[in-house]
Amino acid sequence: SNRMMIYFVRHAEAEHNVKEKEAVQNSIKRGESKKEQEAARKSILNNPVLRDAPLSYRGTQEARLSHTSLDDLMSAGDSRYQPPKVVLVSPLRRALMTATLLFHHSESKNKPKFLALEILREKRTGLPCDERHDVATLRQEFPHINFDDVERGLPIVNTGEDNTRVKARTNEFLEERLTEYLDNEFVAVVSHKGWLREMRHTLKDRVTDGSLQADFDIDEWDETLYKNCEVRVAEFSWGSSRMLESVVSRSVENAMSSIVACPSSPDRNPKDIVTFNKSESIGEIDTEEETEEMMFF
């Protein structure tokens, strides 16, 4: 197939995100400047206890809500939206835990293959939260996930890489790695805000040079950041030479709305379909004003 439906996911809230927000809020209470708030945030992140931090309690709840929302979409009777056959995930624990909560369920008959890919990891800042555990530890904690790719150590991701290098990784993923899975019509990709941001920048470059058509349901999509545990459904289409030609991206809620409005599902009563607004359910902290320097990865 030259088409693939991809569920793009940013990991849910992790423990270091909680500590960051607390540090900034305490700095604000002290009446400190933006510069001082950023210093407080960075100081917290240097704590070695936060190495490869797990999800927070709230993050676990976010992931469960997203699973419910995805399950509603995939069971709504529309063949366009089916469970992923392959889940590609960053090897950092916050992403591994999110992928597990969303897509690994004991009651499922056809479980997807889980593959951890080094190319999907967050920008390697050198901070403890962006340093993963060794493969042996991760294999023990996540026995259902294949870490062979991570064990090979390619691509080499150097400490202190900048956004340009992360963007190059997203381009390499789109050109060389994603197409390896074209035999699978339904795939999930679980990564990070910085990585997903740079992937959108890569797609935007291709739209600008005329090689790609993109249809998003959000304004300024190339500059809009993924929120914690946000899931987006994107149909990717490749041409005969395996060049990516088009991307159609929707929120889960809008994908669900299209099913409700579609006459091809006469058995589906719109009243049966429950969508949710995560920000209402969990009290999402508004991070729209985050600057490039102040980003909760």
Commentary on this structure:
The structure is a single chain. Residues 263-297 have low confidence and may be disordered. α1 packs antiparallel against α2, α3 (57-74) runs parallel beside α4 (93-103) and α7 (163-177) crosses α8 (193-208). An eight-stranded mixed β-sheet has the order 4-3-2-5-1-7-8-6, with helices on both faces. The chain has helices at residues 15-29, 34-45, 57-74, 93-103, 135-141, 148-152, 163-177, 193-208, 252-261, 278-282, and strands at residues 3-10, 86-89, 113-116, 145-146, 186-191, 213-216, 231-238, 244-251. By secondary structure, it is an alpha/beta fold. The longest helix has 18 residues, at 57-74. The radius of gyration is 19 Å and the shape is globular. α4 links the parallel β2 (86-89) and β3. It is built from ten helices and eight strands.
